[in-house]
Amino acid sequence: MGVNYTNTLIAVAEDCPVTSAVIPHRNDEKPTIAAEQYRLISERPYQLTSEDVIFEIVANKQGIADDERPAARAEYFSTGRACLRTSPLAKKYGWGLHNDAEGRLALVGMDTEEYRRLAAGENGTKVVRAMRSSRK
Questions:
Q1: Does the residue 85 lie in any domain?
Q2: Domain region containing 20
């Protein structure tokens, strides 16, 4: 199974520790995955897919040159990879990840009306929960 979803909300995890969306702290010297995911998705709402976000973070971390990225991306996704249900944004920071009909992402704060509508399945939106941080 791929890592891209369409017309889906990745809802915050059941054990998310916050009650409203929190922007992850950014350390420019060594940004966290949460901070990088937040930056990429918030700067380009409904422009990137899950694969785009996941691979850009990997490529930046590994220093993959721009001209080598298409081949490296194909290789990276040639084996199974975790989807954004494991994202710290949805697990710890209170952000839902909405994928539109074309699989492009936007962030939706758990404390917003838009999140409530999407979480209720408005317009046929499928809802999947982010993975829990701890076992039941």
A1: yes
A2: 8-129
Residues of the chain with pLDDT under 70: 1-2, 135-136
- Predicted pLDDT of residue 136: 61
Residue type at position 36: E
Do the beta carbons of residue 14 and residue 94 sit within 8 Å? Answer: no
Q: Among positive and negative, which fits the CA dihedral 78, 83, 86, 90?
A: positive
Per-residue pLDDT of 72-85, as tens digits, reads 999 999 988 889 99
CA-nearest of 15, 36, 18 to 135 is 15
Do 11 and 130 meet the contact criterion of CB atoms below 8 Å apart? yes
Cα(13)–Cα(80) distance, integer angstroms:
22
- The region, left, alpha or beta by phi > 0 then psi within -120 to 50, assigned to residue 69 is alpha
Q: Per the structure, how many domains does the chain have?
A: 1
pLDDT of 11:
97
Q: What is the pLDDT of residue 1?
A: 45
Is residue 3 a part of any domain in this protein? no
Q: How many CA atoms lie within 13 A of 6 on its CB side?
A: 3
